[in-house]
Structure formats: structure tokens, C-alpha cells
Amino acid sequence: MSRSGFAQRMLALTRKEVRQMLRDRSNLAVGLLLPIALILLFGYGLSLDVEHSPVAVVMEDTSPTAREVFTAFQGTMYIDPSWAGSMQEAERRMLAGDLDAIVRVPVDFSRRAAQGDATVQLVLNGVNSTTATSVEGYVGGALANQALKQSDRMGDKPDGGGVVLQQRMWFNEAGISTWYLVPGLLVLIMTLTGAFLTSLLIAREWERGTLESLFVTPVRPLELVLSKLAPYVAIGLIDMAMCLVAARWLFEVPIRGSLLLIVLASFLYLVVSLAMGLFISGVTRNQFQASQMALLTSFMPAMMLSGFVFDLRNVPVVIRYIGEVLPATHFMNLIKTLFLAGNNAAQVLQECGILLVYGVVLVFAAKRTLRKTLDR
Amino acid sequence: MGKLIAFLAQVGSLCRKELLALLKEPSSRAILFAPALLQSLLFGYGATYDLNHVPYAVLDQSRGAASIELLARLDGTGVFERKHTLVSPRQIAEVIDDNEALMVLSIPADFERRLASGQQAPLQVILDGRNSTTAGTAGAYMGSIVASYNQSLGNASGGVTVERRSWFNPNLEARWNIMPALIAALSMLQTLLIAALSVAREREQGTFDQLLVTPLTPMQILIGKALPAIAVGLVQSTLIFLVIRFWFHIPLMGSVWLLYLGLFTFTGASVGIGLSISALSLTMQQAMLYTFFLIMPLMLLSGLLTPVRNMPEVLQVATYVNPLRFGMSIVRRVYLEGAGLADVATDFIPLLVIAAVTLPLAAWLFRHRLS
Amino acid sequence: MTEAAATIVAEGLRKVFPGPGGKPVHALDGVSLTVRAGELTALVGPDGAGKSTLLRMVAGILAPDEGRLQVLGMDAAKDAQGIQDRISYMPQRFGLYEDLSVQENLDLYADLHGVSQEQRQQRFQRLLAMTDLARFTSRPAGKLSGGMKQKLGLACTLVRSPDLLVLDEPSVGVDPLSRRDLWEIVQQLVDDEQLSVIVSTAYMDEAERCAQVFVMHQGKVLADGTPAALRERARGLTGIVTPPDGVPARDLQARLIDATELIVDAVPSGGSVRFIRQPDAAPGKLAELLQGLPAHGRPEELEDAFMLLLRQHHAEQEDAPPASDLMPPKAVLRSRDEKPVIIVRDLVRRFGDFTAVASTSFDVRRGEIFGLLGPNGAGKTTTFRMLCGLLPATSGHLEVAGLDLRTARAQARGRIGYVSQKFALYGNLSVHENLQFFGGAYGLRGTALRARIKAVQSQFQLDPVAVSGDMPGGYKQRLAMAVGLLHEPDILFLDEPTSGIDPLARRSFWRTITALVQGGVTVVITTHFMEEAEYCDRIAIQDAGRVLALGTPKEVREQAGTAHGGDMNSAFIAIVEQARAQGHQSGAEKVA
Question: Do residues C389 and C409 touch, judged by C-beta distance below 8 A?
Fold first, then answer.
């Protein structure tokens, strides 16, 4: 068959896929609305930074010195202090799930403070360990601050020597979690739209029996794969544009690398994740299994194992290797660098190369599932 | 009595058929149960904010006893791993950019001298902020090491010592926090999808009409469709629970019965949502995509990764229709705190309300969804 | 004919599928055949004979386990794509894209086959006229009736003239008018363009049109030759007998067909019964069976030969139990004077601005077989769905056993059985599991359920462990029937229950139905086999939502006039065409 035959068939098949996509509104809901919802959720709803944490203060010592402890917690946005009459009351509230921590100021607080070794007890609610760790830091910080103010007032000289830590956080000076969540969101959205939208495409045709008729035409398997990818690549590119616009102007995340490279890398990853969905679809030939597989292989891994929320550097080696197998991890690395750090030729080449290999392998794997035979 | 037996027998045969359809093929069985095990292991290890390895590089321009002592303390933690010893400030950017090091310590040439003379000695720490949470944690850790070092120099200020105790999670491990939540979250994903596909699959394959001409009442169809999905969900939850309890050794503080009562109510509410989606959808594709559309916000607004309290007011209100928020809360609190029924009763209410709305809605839609 | 003019040459083809319970199924068991170019060739045979497997191999989408297959001079196993570039193939269930419109489906296949724009215009016009789909070009294919989908599938297959046309049961569920048109267009292609066609079919009148017929059975070719040569086998065995006045032809037919030692086959036709006698039947015994009714000889037809071949083959293996043994009639006698069981008055159903059923009225009495006939898209299925309570009526009144099933209590539904047009059972469950579920849903349990399952399984010769979705089309239909009859309903709604099942199974099916009716069961049925209308007490012919004729088969034949040959098929065509011509006229008048 001539090349024009290829072009004509591609056009016809692509037109068919576009029509099918547009006729079912659920496609557009997941393809366009879900990304918008996610962008807004991530931008405004989710924050790993703890604020207004409810902390009860139990004053067993009522001297003015001890009361200073309470004032220490006022005026910070991180802690919402409240009084508790007794330790029992505070513990009851903690058990009811109303408190993140209890600060207990013991009876001998002011006496020991005069000696310079005052102690307060901090009881943390460990159910949410992340919050607990943050609260611990805030409480410690607030107390230290207070002590500093106090000693200032008393006219004590600040202590002399010692090591002073000058911390600088590169790429994200203020340590805003949005800055790394938003580039990660791009990964998440590309993964989800890719896997969710394409994972039923081939399985559906098997179940409805449309492939048998289609096979006995001059159509080539690769044409089927490419025509199924095309409309969803378009949707994915729109999503990518939305993400970039939101990142730049809504969340004001810096884009320090080349925009062109970001677009290129996203395109590569988009093809990888779409082809992955198609492959799942073709292997299972069953919409029920395909949808379960898509859910299992895309959403949770991309969220939990790609370094999106949890840093892969913290996990055991085996899990880290598993994470490294996921294309999402490589794209995640690359996109965070491109957004926050800038162009890094070696990394760009390496990660793009890996994505390219994944893309080619998956497209051909998907093509193989469309070998024109009813034999399994 | 005879009527009741007949009713139950009819429901029983529908349940049986649903379970067969779900579990008959080995591939379907594998897909429903293997991932629950695998994921709970993977995420048990993978879902952690706890720092275990901080690769760092050092640029020591002082090369004195003090800097060596400080570095020794750092290496002694077992968390900080020295990957590179730099010789020039130009290399700092290189190791950070290439992800070789999360942190670079830059010790100035006059570090030793200033310390010895009782002056303040600045120590520069450069952190890779691409993941600001990790960076922040590493920085804080570094801070505490320096503080204890200062103390050892005899420069401790007369501040307040904080004596920490942590309830429910003595070492404040992130795993303790995340894993019980996964009992609810992981099983919800697949259960929701099973329920959502159950009616849509019958509609698409034309079998639903055949079902509707039998004497089965909408109520019977509802029970027959809901129970198998709930059962699969509970089996998944059990698998995850066993992994947490016996592989990761996180002790169960509360009653196992209350835990399962909570899971049953939670799964029932999720299945109600799934069946409503299903009854509304004409094709499996619609059912699946609408489910996916819902799953993301349900997960994100549940408190799994970020506490509900951190969210803006509007979203906090929205979480009241999210069964996962309450299911997870029950599981976490019963599991870790040993909460009793009275403690978590308020969490049951939204779940019961969701189930009481969605399940009858689905049953009504079986017959009244216009084709 | 030279060797070069053969389009298909098969030698020793074998194909084994893993069957249920690990035992292999020999779909093809050493098939060798040669199909000549430029002619029509038919594959006939009972369900599961291996026809579809053979055609799929020809289309290059199944590889033979053994043997050699050459199509258009190419090796089907090695150069499948080469073959696929040159043939057109219509599978048993043509995969239309239901969310695309009729026109979009046609365009897609025209594009894929590289049909030029000029060729396309003329071709589409002809195909749309032939299939009567011109009115519906913008309608989504999923919204077409079952028969119209089949016609659209055929149209998509015929968008170009290939070197070989492969049709797998193209006329299943297609009404007689469209079937006639369909064959005209295929015939025309053969005549004008010397097209080679291979077609599998359950209609013997279609096989009769072909130059060569292969009779397949259990993966083997049982016989082959021209229709005339095959007909020879039944010479002298065929006859026709008319029952005395007042006795329905189907009662006589039932008596004849049960006498398997004397009679090979019997079918009611035009008020009489056509039969084939056993070659070794003693004339005395035969006269005794006929109770003195005069039997006349009649010219033998291909169907006679086919029935003879298969019955002989079956007899060699084992005797299938006659259906009547397994369906003990309930002791309820027909009484004609009570209130009708089904009452339909001015029933209307509209979808948007499309009227599917327009003011339809009829009654069905208890113990009656009522046939609803009509072209595809006439509104039969819609009427059925309303009667079964699956669809609300737009207006009008309907009553089934005194109730509207849409609002009646659930138990009322236990009294009806429903077999839908499309296979609507659980495809991944086995035969036994399907029966068990539906039995349970109808409230059967314990020994009663087991007994009923056993009864229907043997009655329809179903393999309990077979996975229902993987069975050949005819067997799926049987399973659907088995489910419909499982709970011994009082009223049976059967929407094209016999589409796609072979003549042998159809006889057995109708024997069951007549036995049920004798027991007082009421049956409402649609069919496209017009000879099956002869089994009915009364029939209604519906088109475009309206009832055109209503009465006994004899009355309806008379309404059509005798000028059309007198059989039901031609009567049906005449009535529908008359009504359509009038409709066009009155339509034209309104415009004028």
C-alpha cells in the first residue's frame, strides 16, 4: 500500500477516535475538568505546612514566669494555644482528637527557671506524625524565642561564642511546599489523563467486537495505535498548558529552566503514559481488568513512589529501585529541576533519553497487542 | 418467615453470581487481591517523611579540630552520609544540581579561630530545596546537632528544656501515621470501581434488562450488588491490616470489632457512591471515568497526606461528604489511639448519612434511569 | 475451471480450542475444500459446525494449527495482511461503532478501504437505498434496531468491490424484504463484477442461490456440490399433507415430527404440513400415522436434503431425545372465552420526535401463540420492552395478566419469561452458572432448581461447563431460551429467539413451544423466518410502528392476495410494500 493509503487511513481512524472521544462527555470531564480541579486543589487546598495547630497548655505553676510560657505561643500563626484546667482535662481532649499537643508547665517551673534548668513537658499526638514533628519544632522555637526576649529584658548579655548556622535553601529559599508540589502536579496530571483515558480504548473494542471487522481491512496495527494516541495527546497538551499557566501566574512558581525543554519533556512523558494505558488495554482485552490495572499502575505509584510527596532518598534501597523503574520518577526529577533549578544538560539528556526509550518500547508493545489475530 | 427465606435466597443467588463474575477468572482474582498486598508493602516502606539518608558534601576550608569534631558528630548520626569532600566553592552548585548531595556544609577558613576566641563562628549550610520538606527536615536536624555541639562547648544558655513524650506513636514514625490510613484508602480505590462498574457493565452488555424482568426487587438487586463489593473491600482491608500488624509490627490499640464495624460502614458508604455512579452511567467507560474523576479529590481531601485542618474553610466543609475522611479517621483512631465507640461515634454519622442517601438513590435509579 | 481460478484452497485444516474443563474442542477437524472464483459459495451446517472458524481463517485473523490455506493465491498464515488488503469480511457480529452515526461508520470503512470520493457517492446511495437506511444517516448506530445494525454492517462491508467477499451469516435478524434486497445486491456484484463470495448461512433458500454448497458438521465437510446435486438426495422422500378443518397445522406437524422412525422432518406451511419421510419407512405405517389423510408428493428442496443429511448423521452417533418428553404439559386446557391475557390499546412510544410505536392495539388470549412480524425497525422490540415493563409507554393502555408490569409488584414478573434479541446473559459464566443464577432469581431452589436445570440443559443440548460467552451464536441463543423457560412461566416473550440457529435446533425449539402452549402457556414471539409464522394462532404485521395486518396466518395470507405465491414470505413482503406505497402516496398528497 502506498504512503497516501497510510495517510488516508490515519486520517480516517484519527477522525473516528476524536469523534468517539468528543461524544462521551465523561472523557472531557476527566481530560479537562479533572486537571483544573486538581490544580485548584493543589494550589489552594493542600499544604504540608502546619498552621493553627490546637495546643492545650496546662498551668500547674501559676507564677508570672510560668504564664510567660503561654504568651510565648500567642501571636504565632502556627499554634492555637488554649488553657486546660488540669492534665486530666487536657488528656481527655487529646483522646477526643481535639488536640495536637499538650504543654504541661510543672509546679516547680519558676523555681527551676531561676536556677536555669526549667523543664516543660510536651505531649504530642502521634496519630499524625508529620503534624506532630512540626508542632514539636514550633513549640521548641516559641519557647526559645521567649527565653531570648526574657533575657534581653533582664539585660543579660547574649551568650558568647558557638557555631551559628546560616542555612540557605537553594531553589526554594522560603521553603514553600507549593513550589515542589506544583511541578509534581504536572506529573500527576499527565499520568492520570494518560492512563485513565486510554486504558479502555482497546479493551472496549475487543469487548464490543469492533476489532474483528477492523482487522480485515488494509489497516496496519501501528496505525491503530497512533490514531488512538493522537486525540489524547492533544488533550494532554492542553492540560500541560493549563498547568504551566497556573504554575507561573496563579502559584507564582519560578520557571528557571527552558520552557521549550519543559514542553518537550512533558510531551515525551505524555506519550509514555498514554502508550502505557493503551498497552494495559490491549493486554487485558477486558474493560473491567483494564480499569483496575490503570488505577493501580498510575495513580498510587505516581503519588507515592515517584518522589512526588515522599522523597525517594528516604526510602529503603529496594523500594527506591522500584521507584526508579517508574517513568513517572524520571519525569518528576527532570521537571522539578527544570522548574526550580534550571537547565542541567546532563540530567535533561539522561532523563529524556530514558523517557524516549520507554515511549518507543510502550508504543511497540501496544502495537503488538493489536496483532491482527483472534488467537491469544 | 418463608417469605424472608425466599427473599434471602434470591439475594443469595445474586450475590453468588456477582462474586463469580468478579472472581471467576484468575486474572480478575489476581487484580483484586495481589495489589492490596503489594501496595501495602511498597507504601509501607515508601511512604515516609522520616529522614534516613541525607547525602551531603563538605567544603572544609578550616581543616581544624573543631570542624573535624563537628563532622564526626554529623557522621555519627548514621543519617548524614558524606558523599563528597569538595575543594572549591565552585563545586557546590555541581553536586547540588546533579542530585549528588542534598546538603552542602561550607566551613569557612576562620571557623576554628573564631570559635577558639569565643566569637560566633558562622557555618554555611546549603540545602537542595527542590523538595522543601526534606530539605527543611534535614536543616532542622542539622540545627539540633549544632545546638548539642554548642552545648558541649559549655555555651548552653539557660533556656527551657523541652521534655517530649509522644502519644500513640512513640517515635513519631510517618509509617504509623500513613499505614492505618491505607487500610481504608487502598481498599476504597478498587471497591469504588467495582461498584461503579457493576451495573454499567450489565447495561453495556445488555444483561441488565434480563435482570430487571426477573422478580428481583430493586432492594434485592441493591443488596446483591452491594454485598459482594463490600466483601471484596473488606478482604482487601484485612490483607492490608495483616501486613501492618504482622509485617510492620504496628500494634493495634483498639478493638478489632470496632475497627471492622468502622470499615464495614465506610465501605458501605463508598459502595453506595459507586453504585450511584453505576446506575447513572450508560457505559463502562463513563462509569470508570466518573469514578476516576471522583477518586482524586476524595483522596486529596481525606487527610491522607495533609491534615484536613490545614485546608481552607470551604474545602473543610466539602470533606463532610467524603467517606474516606471519616473512614480513615475511625481506622486511625481505633488503631493507634485505641478509641472506643463513644470516641468515634461522630465519625460514623456522616458515613451513615452518605450510605442512607446513595444506596436508595442507586436502587431507585436501576429502574428509572432513562435509556 | 482451472486451478488458477480457485480463490480458496484449503487442505487438511485443523483448529483446536481449549474447551471448558480442559477438554479440547475440535473446531475444524481436517477440512479440505476448493472455492471457485467468480461464484457464490455457501457454507451451511448446524451451530458449532466450524463455519465461523473457517471464515476467520480465510480472513487471516485465526491461524490454523495444521494444514494449508491459500486465499487469492496467498498463504493465509504468512501473508494475512496481503489478503486483508484485498478482501472484505463481515463477521457474524459486525463491530459497528455505536457512538458514531450511520454515515460516519460508512465513511470510516470507505476511507480504510481507500475508496475514492467519486466511487463513494454512487456506492453509498445504492447501499443506503438497499438497506433502507437513507433516512437514518445521522443517527448513531447504537440507536438502530438489531436488524438495521446488521444491514449497516453489511453496507460497511460492501463499500468497495473486493476480490473476495466473506460473509459470516449476514442475514441473521434481517427481515425478508431487506434479505431479498441484500441478495439482489450480492448477486448483482457477482454478475457484473465476477465477484467471488463465500457466505455462511442458516437460511436454506439463500444457499439455494449459490453455485456451490458445502455442508459442514462438527468441524468436517459432510457433503458438497451444487444445490441441485444435493437436492437429489431427498428425491422421492418429500410430501405434503393437509390437516382436516379445525385442526391447527402445528398439531399435525407435532405428531409427525415426534414419529422419528418414520419422519425425518415436518414443518407447517400455508395451512398444510410439509414432511420428509424416512427412506426405510414402511408405507403402511406411514398411512397409519397420517390417519388416512391424503399425502401428496412435492418437489424436493435444499432444506430437505440438509435435514436428511444431518438427521442421518445424528442417527449414526446417537439419538437425541425428542423435546416433547422433557416438557410435560401442565394440566391446563385451552379455553378461548376468558379475558385476554395481554391487552394492548392505542399504545404509543416516542423517542424525541421519532415515533417507534404508533397507536398499536391487539389482544392475546391465554394459550395462544401470537406472532409479531415486521421489517427491522418496525417497533417490535420497543413493543416487547413496554410489555415486559422495561420501558414506560408514552401513552396508551397495556395489561399483561391484568397488570402493568412496570408498576406491578415484583412477583408478577415471575410469571413471565423474556428472551431478548441480543444475547443478554453473563458471558464469563458457564451455562450451569447462568441457569443457577436465573433460577435463583426466579425463586427456584433446592431440588426443584436442580431438576429444572437438568431438564432445560438436556432439552437444549447444552454443555453445563461451557463458558457461555465463548459458545457459537446458535448455542447462545439456546441458552437464552433455556433461561426464559427455566421457571415455567405462564407468558413467554420471545424476541427473535430463532435468529441464527440452525433448522434442526429450530424444529426442536418449536416442538417445545407447541408443547408449552398445549399446556396453557401464552407465547408472544417475533421472528424473521416467515415459515415460523405458520406455527402461530394469530399474527400481527407491524411496520413503522403501525399494525398493518392482524389475524390468523390464513387470514393474513388472504389479505395479501394469492397473486404472490401464497406462502407467508411473499404475503409479508406484499403487505409491507403495499402499505409503504400507500404511505408514500398519502405523504405525497399531504405535501401537495
Answer: no
Q: Is C153 on the interface with A (CB under 8 A)?
A: yes
Chain A contact present for B201, CB below 8 A: yes
Q: Is C164 on the interface with A (CB under 8 A)?
A: no
**Nearest residue in C to B370, CA atom:** C391
Host H or E run for residue C77: none
Phi, psi of C398, deg, nearest 5: -145, 150
Interface with C, mutate which of B3, B4, B13 (most C CBs under 10 A):
B13
Listed as ranges, residues in chain A with pLDDT below 70 are 1-3, 47-49, 116, 147-167, 169, 173-175
What digits encode the pLDDT tens for the residues C345-395?
999 999 888 888 988 999 999 889 999 998 888 889 899 889 888 888 999
ipTM associated with this complex: 0.84
Q: Which CATH number fits domain C342-527+537-549: 1.20.120.450, 3.10.450.750, 1.10.760.10, 3.40.50.300?
A: 3.40.50.300
User: Do B158 and A96 count as a contact with CB atoms less than 8 A apart?
Assistant: no
Give the count of Cβ contacts less than 8 A between chain A and C: 93
Q: Is A6 on the interface with C (CB under 8 A)?
A: no
A255 Cβ contact list (under 8 Å, min separation 6): A244, A247, A248, A262, A338, A339
**Are residues B27 and B72 part of one domain?**
no
A89-136 tens-digit pLDDT = 988 888 777 888 898 888 888 888 777 677 888 888 877 777 787 788
The answer to whether the Cβ–Cβ distance between B207 and C425 falls below 8 Å is yes
- C416/B17 touch (CB, cutoff 8 Å), yes or no: no
Across chain A, how many H-helices and E-strands are there?
17, 5
C448 to chain A, closest Cα gap in Å = 35
* pTM listed for this prediction: 0.85
CATH number of this structure's domain C3-229, picked from the four choices 3.40.50.1010, 3.40.50.300, 2.60.40.1120, 3.60.40.10: 3.40.50.300
CA A155 to chain centre: 48
**CA-based nearest distance C490→chain B, Å:** 14
In angstroms, the CA C140 to CA C101 distance is 4
Helix axes C446-459, C431-441, angle to 10 degrees: 130
Grid cell for residue A41:
486543589
Is residue C32 pLDDT above 80, yes or no? yes
Helix, coil or strand: residue B92: helix
**For chain B, percent of residues with pLDDT exceeding 70:** 96
Residue C326, pLDDT above cutoff 50:
no
User: What residues does B104 pair with on adjacent strands?
Assistant: B57, B126
Mean pLDDT, rounded, for C44-60: 92
User: What phi-psi label fits residue B118: left (phi over 0), alpha (psi between -120 and 50 degrees) or beta?
Assistant: left
Question: Which of B28, B52, B301 lies closest to A289 in CB terms?
Answer: B28
- Domain covering C231-326 in this structure, CATH number: 3.30.70
Q: From the list C84, C93, C111, which residue is nearest A216 (CB)?
A: C84
pLDDT reading at C343 higher than 80: yes
Contacts of C97 in chain A (CB under 8 A): 16, 20, 210
Distance from CA of A145 to the nearest CA of B (A): 9
Provide the number of structural domains found in chain B.
Answer: 2
Burial B71-102 (b: 16+ CB within 10 A, else e): beebeeeebbeeebebeeeebbebbbbebbbb
Question: What is the pLDDT, as a whole number, of residue A156?
Answer: 47
CB within 8 Å: A160 and B315: no
Taking CB atoms and an 8 Å cutoff, what residues of chain C touch B10? 440-441, 443
Same fold, C3-229 and C342-527+537-549: yes
Spell out the domains of chain A, with CATH numbers in brackets: 10-46+176-369 (no CATH), 53-148 (3.40.1710.10)
pLDDT (mean) for B163-176: 75
> Does the residue B164 lie in any domain?
no
Q: Check: CB of residue C57 under 8 Å from CB of residue A190.
A: no
